[in-house]
């Protein structure tokens, strides 16, 4: 299965199209080429079949045959229809690929905690795309479903998941810096997941809309496919050890895997129903970006939330200070994964046990830290009515100890103090926090616009300073 999923579902066809003619000879050629990536055993046992279907080839994956190879005691039931792809030569070296992936089936699994079962239904699942072997990617494509449901049952827990209509589009083009540039957009409606334990509803997640947008720059699709072929051809340990020089060359050729991968996930009208009450947000989005295996790589994350709501059970004085909007940004810089990867590839020897020498892990950790990797908090904002908290800073680790600088400024800090002061008359917890809030205010620097600011410096010697004043001296 680990071979079929990446090859058949993603790299659907991996050989040039041989003109327009579709015949048994072509089916045999396609089978032989596919065997490089899935192994001959799957073809010999009929798990994967290639046949002619009019002017196209039909690739069929017999899912039941895969399950039949597993111990019956672990998988007593597996009932899913075969998965099929139609691939048609385009005449320009590419393939038209299509599939109806609508399905309905069930599975049971035995594990130490008891029997688990799942039922899955996908309605009107359609897929079309144009695949080009020289890019090892789909240059265009689209898929859609009318809806999906899944129910999983464990001894005490039942989880129901449903998704409404969904669509996706994807494509690739040759990248100027090698590999291909990829893009995927996806939209789904009416996502609902509910959980019951012992027949009682304990939680649910709902969102009316989910939109995904992912891009990859210079993805090394061909070298990754070459690595897959090498893995299939070297299941024998002795042969793998003998050809490890080829493996190292293929690994180096695949670096840096990609130049940059980035994406956003946006959820609208999000609701979390829990024992402790209902939480929600009008919109929640997350964004990420990551360089490949680079010498000075960067990783970035962002979380934005608007229209936050909280359970009514939260005390009113706490609710008055909880945020209604979040814009959080953080990540890392100066991340040298390239040096670690290349040194590991150069050093490992599969004929030895262990393949890496003693102390190697400590050495590459030392090299990694020598590049001064940096944890960064970008300009982040937390808002609640007239109160706004902004923060940013960075942390490095010279000599394995943190060196941090953080700037925090607040508009409306007096409103926070006022809420705590009022609540302290009747709430013991608020009474404990109120003196702390006053003490923090005493360290603040008043800015021209009325905001209060705290510049915090925590040094490797253990000292902590706030706005130039010593809060904690250096360690002895």
Please outline the helices and strands.
Blueprint: H1 4-8, H2 24-38, H3 40-44, E1 48-53, E2 56-61, H4 63-68, E3 77-79, E4 83-89, E5 95-100, E6 103-111, E7 114-123, E8 126-132, E9 137-145, E10 147-153, E11 157-163, E12 166-174, E13 180-197, E14 200-219, H5 221-233, H6 237-242, H7 244-254, E15 260-274, E16 277-291, E17 297-306, H8 316-319, E18 325-335, H9 337-347, H10 360-370, E19 374-384, E20 387-396, E21 403-411, H11 413-423, H12 428-442, E22 445-446, E23 452-458, E24 464-466, E25 469-472
Antiparallel strand pairs: 1-2, 2-4, 3-6, 4-5, 5-8, 6-7, 7-10, 8-9, 9-12, 10-11, 11-13, 12-13, 13-14, 14-15, 15-16, 16-17, 17-18, 18-19, 19-20, 20-21, 21-23, 22-23, 23-24, 24-25
Helix pairs in contact: 5-7, 9-10, 11-12
Query: How far from one another are the termini?
Result: 58 Å
Principal-axis shape: globular
Low-confidence segments: 1-14
Mean of residue pLDDT values? 92
Radius of gyration (CA) equals 28 Å
Beta-strand segment tally: 25
Strand content: over 45%
Main sheet attributes: strand count, strand direction, barrel closure: 25 strands, antiparallel
The helical percent reads 10-25%
Q: Name the structural class.
A: alpha+beta
- Figure out the total of helices: 12
Short synopsis of the structure:
The protein is an alpha+beta fold and about 475 residues long. The protein is about 25% helix and about 45% strand.
């Amino acid at each position: 299965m680990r071979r079929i999923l990446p090859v058949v579902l993603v790299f659907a066809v991996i050989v040039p199209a041989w003109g327009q003619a579709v015949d048994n000879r072509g089916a045999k050629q396609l089978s032989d080429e596919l065997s490089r990536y899935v192994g001959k055993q799957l073809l010999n046992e009929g798990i994967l079949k290639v046949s002619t279907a009019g002017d196209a080839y039909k690739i069929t994956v017999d899912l039941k045959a895969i399950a039949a190879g597993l111990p019956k005691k672990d998988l007593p039931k597996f009932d899913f229809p075969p998965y099929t792809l139609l691939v048609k030569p385009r005449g320009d070296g590419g393939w038209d690929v299509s599939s109806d992936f609508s399905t309905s089936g069930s599975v049971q699994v035995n594990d130490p905690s008891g029997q688990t079962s799942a039922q899955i239904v996908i309605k009107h699942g359609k897929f079309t795309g144009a695949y080009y072997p020289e890019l090892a990617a789909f240059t265009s494509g689209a898929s859609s479903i009318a809806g999906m449901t899944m129910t999983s049952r464990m001894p005490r827990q039942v989880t129901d998941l449903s998704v409404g209509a969904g669509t996706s589009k994807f494509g690739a083009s040759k990248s100027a810096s090698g590999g291909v540039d990829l893009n995927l957009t996806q939209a789904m409606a009416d996502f609902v997941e509910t959980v019951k334990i012992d027949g009682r509803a304990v939680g649910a997640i709902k969102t009316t809309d989910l939109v995904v947008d992912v891009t990859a720059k210079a993805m090394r699709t061909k070298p990754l496919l070459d690595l897959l072929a090498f893995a299939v051809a070297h299941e024998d340990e002795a042969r793998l050890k003998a050809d490890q020089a080829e493996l190292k060359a293929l690994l180096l050729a695949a670096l840096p895997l990609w130049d940059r991968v980035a994406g956003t996930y946006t959820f609208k009208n999000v609701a979390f129903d829990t024992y402790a009450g209902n939480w929600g947000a009008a919109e929640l989005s997350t964004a990420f970006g990551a360089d490949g295996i680079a010498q000075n790589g960067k990783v970035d994350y962002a979380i934005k939330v608007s229209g936050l709501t909280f359970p009514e059970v939260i005390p009113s004085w706490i609710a008055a200070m909880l945020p209604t909007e979040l814009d959080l940004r953080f990540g890392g810089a100066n991340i040298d994964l390239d040096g670690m990867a290349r040194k590991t590839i150069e050093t490992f020897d599969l004929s030895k046990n262990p393949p890496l020498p003693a102390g190697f892990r400590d050495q590459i950790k030392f090299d990694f830290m020598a590049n001064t990797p940096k944890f960064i908090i970008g300009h982040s904002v937390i808002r609640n009515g007239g109160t706004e908290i902004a923060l940013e800073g960075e942390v490095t680790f010279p000599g394995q100890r943190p060196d941090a600088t953080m700037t925090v400024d607040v508009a409306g800090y007096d409103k926070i103090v006022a809420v705590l002061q009022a609540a302290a008359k009747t709430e013991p917890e608020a009474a404990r926090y109120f003196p702390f809030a006053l003490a923090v205010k005493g360290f603040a620097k008043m800015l021209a616009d009325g905001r209060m600011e705290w510049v915090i410096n925590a040094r490797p010697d253990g000292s902590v300073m706030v706005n130039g004043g010593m809060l904690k001296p250096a360690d002895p």
